[in-house]
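Narrative of activities, Objective 1.

The group set out to show that a structural description can be obtained from nothing but a protein's sequence at a throughput compatible with the screening campaign. Below is one input-output pair from the validation batch, recorded exactly as produced.
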Amino acid sequence: MTTMIIGLFIVFALLSIPIAHALVLAAVSALWFADKVPMHLAIEQMLSQTQSFPLIAIPFFMLTGALMVSGKLGTSLVNLLTMIIGRVHGGPAQVGVLSSTIFGGVSGSAVADASAIGSMLIPWLKKLGYPAPFAAGTLAAAATIDILIPPSIPMIVYALVSGASIGALFVAGILPGLLMCAGFMLVCYVQGRRRNFPRDTTPFVWSEFWVQLMQAGPALAMPVLIIIFLRFGIATPTEVSVMSTLYALVVSYFVYSDLTIEKMRHAAIEAGISTGVVLLIIMASSTVGWIVTYEQIPAEFTKYAQETLKEPWLIILSMNLIMLATAMFIDLPAAVLLLTPMFVPLAASVGMDPIQLGIMMIINLSIGLYHPPIGTTLFITSSIAKVRIGDVVIELIPFYAVALCILVGYAYFPWLTIH
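Output recorded for this entry:
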């Protein structure tokens, strides 16, 4: 059945059927042709996977991001960061990287970040004189920092399948997110200096700086509050997600004064659609994962890897290569759900902690978001910049190098995974 699922999934994906629907069709078709287990068990599996209390955090974090990312917050944040680093080499591009890092503590969605920040900053960077492909590439790569900085929707999905602590994953994601931010900013600085990119020349005014700092302060405080509440056990991730939504409502109404019925309606619809997409992928992937487990593929895969590769470093390398290849063709949530049952026992066999595996997997799959042929953030920013994908990919080469270096660190040095 597993072989049939893989073959049918590839066919359905090549026919441009959405990933979630392709997974369901492949799983149901395999069950029907094989006739080994009752069909209704697949439906029960799909529904049971959504009956998880931690999943409630997803729509609330989505709603928080929709409320906070729009409106005056984005403008205030960009203005503040521009005043701080806009005058250094590659400074305006570094503003994009820092903005994405901070928004990562608000939305937890790389796609939302690429759309919101990209729409705001790419036209501005082009107006300053930055090459459109470089602007698109910077924002496509930077948007993926969102899924490392807590709250992170993919981390919640990984925790659901692996049984790992969501709080521990959120804490462990801080350092790689900051390292990715620093690495991408370094790329912007080097490229800005080497290619003499323009810099911001607006005179620095302290009074304006304090105004912008006060305006952006609530957004800067949110990720800090989330980490404090989780790290010290004040609240569970689900409770934190509800509190973050209430925080966003209060800040939007009292600080930014831009909370309207229409904005709440738009945010609710956006969060509902995004949550629906994630849950549909979870339901579809759960059936495939159940069939794979039923046929004992994870156990057989672990046994094969141990007997064939033997050395732990080779097993870890093979896992990374499989993840990178998968990320190029499958959406991130679906890839997490499909690969986690396979790799959790294999990682345990070489002494890898589930939290380390989770961070390694998220870094791996995040690269796929700005790598062709499926790269979601790559397509979003390229569309905003109105440039060819190939031109953007060339500009992304140094960003790939930074991400791969950080990936190697987290794959082979467990002490980097702080939780």
